[in-house]
Input
Amino acid sequence: MSTVSEIYQRHADYINPYKVDSLIAIEFDCLFTKAQGCYLYDEFDNAYLDLVAGFGSITLGHYHPDLIQRLNESLLLSRPNINPWGIVPDAANLGERLVRMTKSKLNKVYFASSGSEAMDSALKFSMAHTKRTSFVAVNSGFHGLTVAATSLAGHSFWRNALPLLPLDVDHIDMNDLTALKKCLQQKPVAAIILEVIQGSSGKGAWRSEALKELASLAKAYGALLIVDEVMTGLGRTGDWFGYQTISASFMPDIILTSKGLTGGLIPLSAVLMTDEIYHSMFSDAAGANHGATFSANNLAVSCGLAVLQITEQEKLLENVKVSGNLFNDGLYSLAKSHFPIRNINAIGLCVSFEVIEEDHYQTRATDVCLQLLDKKILTALAPHDTNYIRLTPPLNINADQINYFIRSLKDCFDH
Output
């Protein structure tokens, strides 16, 4: 049997030496050998409260028993998982459920395997519909790691190694409608791409009124609205989609969702759009044959249906709202008590806050994450601004776990 150090060395040799180096640097070169609920367990059976949860993909917690049972049942049925000569019944059922979650404002679903692939597909649909090739994205946004998605990235971190990117993309700041209007006036734009709550910056959300005006500008200039709900969709904000939480009257033309769609077990993503946009892409022959090998495979869509059903049965949207308020109240209580945090954003279980560097506390966000790690709590820095800590815990996190995090965070500052 290989030792932990041997496993890490093999990973460095064949997969990713930089990740290995970073874990060794913080003396966290351990192996997680078990996962259950909101916890990960290392080889010594130490339990870590997981507030990252696969960057939001572990919506039901690790290995939810009902989800595992449904997945096992699907395996035992021995149905074909991939069958180009037929259809997967549960794909239609999952598509119908997703359409209903938009209140049937969007009525076609295209399945893919990842958030990045979904974004590439959305760009393709928008170009086919508008016959345009330029786009507007948002600074500090993130939409995936494929070449097209990297073109949209609102931070140079993702683009530095690349000499040239294929898409014509202009970037604006969040809520900056003056800059948006200027972009729309300068050239014909196929689509505006945004996250209603930014996942990688930690800096919050679009204002409701700004979203309404954005939609009006897009319509006036013939651009489509693509909303990336890969992180915020499927209940994380307390509604099925984040845009519904931010503005009840706002309606995108295309929505992407992924991550939590299968509870983090099997890669699956979905692009939701109108019939009109869908049919802009396809002739009869193209439509009949347009699909990736793993699109809507049986195990993934069965898993997706189970996740949505469990989310409803366990009333997790309600729990998200309650839990988000607990995070919000706890963090604001620390800020009001003059602990060095500010810019608190807790919209459901999309939670982020800035750690202020102060001589009195002699701490930074990085230090806080490491101190929380010592207390067996897993958190993450926002990659576009490492002064921010972001949390994307499972949707069934409970009050005791949240209160433990707030107490532990307070202890990081009590020297």
In short: The mean pLDDT is 93. The CA atoms of residues 371 and 412 lie 6 Å apart. The chain is about 40% helix and 20% strand.
